[in-house]
Amino acid sequence: xxxxxxxxxxxxxxxxxxxxxxxxxxxxxxxxxxxxxxxxxxxxxxxxxxxxxxxxxxxxxxxxxxxxxxxxxxxxxxxxxxxxxxxxxxxxxxxxxxxxxxxxxxxxxxxxxxxxxxxxxxxxxxxxxxxxxxxxxxxxxxxxxxxxxxxxxxxxxxxxxxxxxxxxxxxxxxxxxxxxxxxxxxxxxxxxxxxxxxxxxxxxxxxxxxxxxxxxxxxxxxxxxxxxxxxxxxxxxxxxxxxxxxxxxxxxxxxxxxxxxxxxxxxxxxxxxxxxxxxxxxxxxxxxxxxxxxxxxxxxxxxxxx
Length: 306
Hints:
This protein is α+β, with helices and mostly antiparallel strands. The chain has helices at 21-34, 72-84, 89-93, 106-111, 126-132, 151-160, 215-233, 255-261, and strands at 3-4, 36-40, 43-56, 171-173, 189-197, 200-211, 237-251, 271-274, 289-292.
């Protein structure tokens, strides 16, 4: 059953106003109360199946969690790395982004049979599929220009065209069964669709696997960033981010920190300003983005699983 997350979590303390973030807190509460302990590939999780959330992006709001501090700068740097088509973790390391380190170490690559990859080589992961879908993978330093299918550019070119922007085929897939075995980690957020009504842009994401403690807050922010960016680039209005998760889970060592997080009352979401419109989607830089009025509770530390 696909569960529509509630406006208010079942388990919380204190007064709570209606707020989009309560959908996330309700998901945490549902898993804590109704989830089943499952032993998986990388540890023990408490799990439920099927969840949906919707976050408003109107008036330039961007849904960064406020019940804990979100590392939004890291999230944005990773998104721009995806957009560039890169699969080289060294580029992220140079920006002090560490989220792919565990999946690109020599030990990890050897453990998944990618012994021929250099350290920091990730294979044809998100950026490769977004910009060069199914192009033969020849390493992160190879020039893939005009190789494979540029799904992201196809969406943008259609959104710019007043007669094509209403297409129901504006879909981008990171899930490529032909190349899964070449990836250091198969994609979790796998299928995104953009829809336009009048000039209002909506983004819908399907995610096969959601690490609710660490991954899901990043995914909410990342695809909201992407929607605001595409709206700016194509002269549209970012309207909403719709989020569907198949397997929703909390790792066993994240259970207690998330119980504590349920005590935190959300603040108003911050707003985003993208300073100017660039010629190409890959031309935007970190400095083009301004986040205003991000008020949040403190960091909720949880360890990341590979």
